Amino acid sequence: MTAAQPHQSSSAPLRIVDLFAGPGGLDMAAKILDQEAIGIEWDDDAFETRQAADLLTVHGDVRDYGPNSDEVREATVLAGGPPCQTFTVAGSGAGRRALDLVLSLVDKLGKAENVEGLDLVMKEAEGFDDERTALVLQPLKWALEACFRQQPYEAIVLEQVPAVLPVWEAMGEVLERIGYQFPLVEPATPEEDDQLLLGEVTGVRRPAKPPRRAFVLHTEEYGVPQTRRRAVLLARLGERPRFPEPTHRRYRKGVAASVGAPELEPWVSMGKALGRKDHFVVVSNYGTGGDPKARGRRAATTPSATVTGKISRNRLQTRDGRDIGRFTHQEAGQLQSFPRAYPWRGGAIAQQIGNAIPPRLGVHILSAALGLDPPGQEVWKRLENWTPPASSGTEQAPGAAG
Question: How much is the pTM?
């Protein structure tokens, strides 16, 4: 495939199509940045939440749509966070075997000569034991198809768990060949961090050595009251996007928030984010070190551990061990940096919350990818104070189900 040329866009805000949009973490970030976004989401519960939040939504399966579909044809920015459950490399090794096959399919997509060739590769991808595995290929298929149709996306934003980083890196190699560029990030040395992961950001702003096109961000370094890591790919057609510089210090167990680079803000604790004055302790639903009795514990004065769909099972206790309930859905959402007023709807709300990209992180990576100024306090006030429309209605895309 030859290098793509960006199509002309108007002065209106860039239009984002968000694949696997979930309950709206990235789309909420776009809304706060005054960028129009449309999400594709098949899950009924997440769709109900999106309706209440007034997020433009196509209610359907990403595989049934493409960049030329009527509902999303105007989009000039591609974003997505496909399901990640099948990419763990722990246990039997099935995840690693799946990863190897995914990487080979990425290479085949990159060698396709037309839209029909892309479809043949995606047909081959249907052979996975778990159909969710092949969904990670959809963003690249969309990006390449848009190029074949002479309507390439101006920017691409992908995020997922760190285990998906090799896939983003391989996709980056394909995108680079057709003219996409990526943030410049200074390499790090192992001595700078004793917990290096492929692509993990170390120190203030530097990822580990291997990737040139993808990296892992620590969410607490962007003001999210949670220690969560996300593998991110940012690309722009014909120009290099800036790296989303951290604004807060990295959390390290036993190290005070006041310790670290003076130009960075302290990481945000659960207590501060929730506005709670009690000195609670979160007792995790998960055991540590293989011992189900050794529950992880986080004090209110620290950021939350990674929020997952099991957050509703975590117990809150006083310092002396007395149970005081659990997080509400609103509180769990706040730990993901959603506004307190976010209108969670439908069933499996804890799972919706755990699956979402933190909107605050979304603001940082969208700003970097779209060439916007780094977000300031006015942006964060808009996010924190956002409320849903009084009608809790929704604007739907033409032809969208509801």
Answer: 0.87
